[in-house]
Sequence to fold (613 residues):
Amino acid sequence: MCGIVGYIGRRRALPILLGGIKNLEYRGYDSAGFAVVSRRGVESRKAVGRVARLEEKIGDPDRFPGTAGIIHSRWSTHGEVTEANAHPHADCRGRIWLAHNGIIENYKELKRALARTGHTFHSETDTEALAHLIEEFTIRTPGLAIEEAVRLALLSVRGTYGLVVLDRESPDKLVAARNFSPLLIGIGRGEYLVASDASAVLKHTKNVIYLDDGEMAVLTPREHTVWDLRRRPREKPLHEIEWTLEQAQKGGYSHFMLKEIFEQPEAIENALRGRLVPKDGHAQLGGLETVHERLAGAERLIIAACGTAYLAGRVGKYMLEACAGIPVEVDVASEFRYRAPVFRKGDVFLAISQSGETADTLAALREAREKGVPTFGIVNVVGSTIARETDAGIYQHAGPEIGVASTKAFTSQVAILALLALSLGRQRDLSLTQGQEFARDLARIPELMRRTLGVDDEVRRIAAACRDFKNFLFLGRKYNLPVALEGALKLKEVSYVHAEGYGAGEMKHGPIAMIDERFPSVCIAPRDSVYEKMVSNIEEIKARRGPVIAIATEGDQEMGAIADHTIFIPKAAEIFVPLLSVIPLQLFAYYFGVEHGHDVDRPRNLAKSVTVE
Ligand code: M6R
Fold:
């Protein structure tokens, strides 16, 4: 999510660091900072906003003579967007400087323990705890090599990291480490770069080493060594980057939309990490502590959101009603704000928004607040207006979503709503055994998503075969009705063809009149409690010569025989199927748009964040 670049060599580090980090800005950053070391000691500057703001603060980068340094552009996960929270973070003595991407899950425990031994903290971040922990090891063992202090600290850490450490006392070394957050080493002549993304090093070298999880590296201007956290040396193959800069920013994918579709398993892992507790059949939602009591006693939940976030809310309604027995109303925020909503004692309001800046969602939230209703949010962008104005909230940690068409934000919102359903359910009637089963099934979803993404080629072929159709009907029932609506929304957005989402049960009440051989239906028909009903609907379409593209459960030969095209998804608990069934629909919209030569990342007339009514 965040951008990291490190440099060590003979040249001045800062201009190289700035050039590298600017190539990572496509990821959408909110603050930036650097630290370089020279005979004058460590010099550091930070700024809120884009890297350009940091450059303004720096003035002439040649004023900073250090030939080793680190830079970071932050996409906040812990703590508001402030200078104090911007990286790099330092220890108490300004000796050890750290740039980090990822989440240190046990940072609160670490901070408490370190505070007891006299450490003082200056930020709200998880990262700062690690800087002090490394310091603690150097204090306990004077003369300890910095790489050993980093290694010992990492052994005490739970969570994810891609990180680079700069040490005032060892100005000829950078230490890098990786666990679930990408990090690579660029190998130049008499110099090394380390970065979270290849696009940051491409200008200087195409020769790279990719660190794997649990590995760390020590870089000096002359050599690099890699080993694992048990100090076993690792032989690392050298790779040559073949991408152009633009390709590298998209991680080799042709569009951000495709990249983000493929990032979904990781986005869900991030949403669940540290929250889902399968053995207790529970979900820990730390961000909701302040509204915990009111949520526990809530008699009704009111969800307001727009577009894809609204549709995630509609999946959430089914989940919350089924697991927690709590009545849920879901409204498009633009209606909610104008329809004089009636609030009752016992209501709790939930805003869902990827950007946290959508004008209508914000207005709905303010309306609820004004009426004294407790509010909370599910938001991706940390420190955004909705995140700040709600009483409490759950961050998605899905990483920046650049493509205008929302994909990973949707599944991540649904996953968090599932956690909420589990948490509220367990406070109500959901038994321990039911909770454990729910949690186990949810924990399997990222892996099942990875398998589902295997339909990519098949969907591309189907989209090409369907390229001349001008209208599509998307049908689903129960948990998959909102998914049908989302499939239609995606197709409209990126391919500009007419698509309608409908509850399959409503088809006979009107839309069936449109069906003929030129009007295809995309039917979401997994083997679930409404499967037989969906099969009947599909037969009705076929009887009218309507082409059918079915999304079905692996092994469902019956569906394979009825539909014109069948896309198979893995079997999953019914409640979580939307997290899988939406994937082929996202891919279908993507390939259909590409097939028609549209700019799928920036569809016409749309904006990523709708900050006007
Ligand atoms: O940032 P938000 O989640 O509040 O945005 C809400 C909608 O504008 C957004 O989901 C929109 O519908 C997407 N472009 C859909 O792909």
Remarks:
- The first strand starts at residue 3 and ends at 8.
- The mean pLDDT is 94.
